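re: that complex we talked abt at group meeting.

here r the seqs, copy pasted straight from the sheet so there may be weird spacing, ignore it
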Amino acid sequence: MEASRRGELEPTKHLTKVERRSDREVVVTRRFEAPAQLVFEAWSKPELFERWWAPRSMGMTLRSCEMDVRTGGTYRLGFGDGMDFFGRYLEVTPPSRIVWTNEEGGENGSVTTVTLSETDGTTMVVVSELFASKGALDADGGGAADALNETFEQLDELLDALTSYSG
Amino acid sequence: MVHYLTARLDASFAALSDSTRRGVLEQLGREEASITDLADRFHMTLTGMRKHVGVLEQAGLVVTEKVGRVRTCRIGPRRLEEVSAWIERYHELWDTRFGELDHVIDELKRKETTDGSKPPR
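got the structure back, here u go
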């Protein structure tokens, strides 16, 4: 945003690909115009991470961001109203791999694996999220749609009532 | 993502605000039908029925398929739990995130050029 205001070039925007690998795994792929070292920095430094992880344009506001990015370290992201996302880093290997657990869902937790691979100065980022079960994946819904879920459920009920009428 | 969801909800509720369209959904809930069938049943012109079906289709409540000269309508995929909707929401979240990440990375790249050739630690 600031960049365009200063009249500088917008960064090249690559396509984001999302793929269901199985009932409980979803994989996101995206290329970035920078060496892996830089991309890794943006994933592992809290002051950088908090600037892009919770986009304000999607109605998300990150209130706090504590990250101890090393193997065995923990993190906690606070979205206010007691809504915290937290877990542990299972593996941190600069600049190519970060693996963490998402423990806020209890038994329905998931493990996120981020892999960075550099070719000719650009970096391919692969994010895999492996859920405990298919049900856990379905319930997650991308992690940010909770506020509208209820309205959608009401709409679903209404549609059910309309379309299953057999009189 | 929230924007996308809101737009879809608006379209769905707008589509349902009309009694003919609710009737059409009820009818299609029982069995699929052509536009002509629906126009007859609801005593409307073909053009009028086409418009109603178009609104339902836009909201994703109805899908239509043209085979030969007949356009058949049936209930569309609309469940929030559906895989396609899930993927769409997931995609929108990550695509927005990565758009922001582009900006952060771009800034780091510029800083690096200013600070000299050594990568920041």
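couple things i noticed - Chain B touches chain A through 48 residues (CB under 8 Å). Chain B has a mean pLDDT of 81.
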